Amino acid sequence: MSATLEALSKTLNTHLGDRVKSLEVAFGEVTLEVDAADYLPVMMSLRDEPALAFEELIDLCGVDYSTYANVPRTGRRFAAVVHLLSVSRNWRLRVRAFAPDDDFPSLPSVTAIWNCADWFEREAFDLYGIVFPGHTDLRRILTDYGFIGHPFRKDFPLSGYVEMRYDPDQQRVIYEPVTIEPREVTPRIVRESTYGNTDNA
Fold first, then answer.
1. Nearest 10 degrees: Cα torsion 45, 131, 76, 73
2. Looking at residue 40, what is its pLDDT?
3. What is the full DSSP assignment across 81-92?
4. Nearest CA to 92 among 188, 193, 4?
5. Which end of the chain is less congested by CB atoms within 10 angstroms, N or C?
6. Tally of domains within the chain
7. 52 in any annotated domain
């Protein structure tokens, strides 16, 4: 472990104390995990504590851990993962907090701490269904307003539920059940010489 990562880990443990649920150093990065109840106060400490001084939020994303790394997982399913940067201290940190309820995942919004989290939280809501109480404009950002479901959840069907098209007769956009026909896709280099030839059937 580098001296910088060791110093960061020690500083985090000193200033956050028992709010640190776990602290890992891997692949040259520090990952801090906190409980949902401690998420907001920890984030405020990370920004305001002079010894930590994480002035910038670089990224915030949702994660569905239901089958993380192709292995079924026990425990909570949805988490927000935040990447922070301290320019003055020249160090980075990853913070993870799991939503306590898988049926209605929810974590406090950090937009009052870093206002750049606005669109990141909207994306996590849109794609994973994670709700961020305290966000002033939590609505879909990538999918259509009438979209059903959250497409980055691992149980979301690959072809979706409905498809959208413009109907010239009704002169409006309409939604219909998905009509995608499953088909076999075989790379050309491994096809048999008779692939697709119905004469030999």
1. -120
2. 97
3. EEEEEETTTTEE
4. 4
5. C
6. 1
7. yes
Per the domain annotation, does 187 fall within a domain? no
Per-residue pLDDT at 32: 97
Write the DSSP string, 58-78: EEEEEEE-TTGGGS---S--E
180 falls within a domain = no
Residue 43 lies in domain: 3-143
Is the alpha carbon torsion for 54, 57, 58, 62 positive or negative?
Answer: positive
Confirm if 44 and 107 have CB atoms less than 8 A apart.
Answer: no
**How does residue 2 score in pLDDT terms, banded at 50, 70 and 90?**
confident
Helices (H), the chain: 3-16, 36-48, 117-128
CATH number of the domain where residue 36 is located = 3.30.460.80
End-to-end CA distance of the chain: 64
Closest CA to 33 of 163, 42, 64, 101: 42
Predicted local distance difference test score (pLDDT) of residue 47: 97
Place of tokens 């994660």: 63
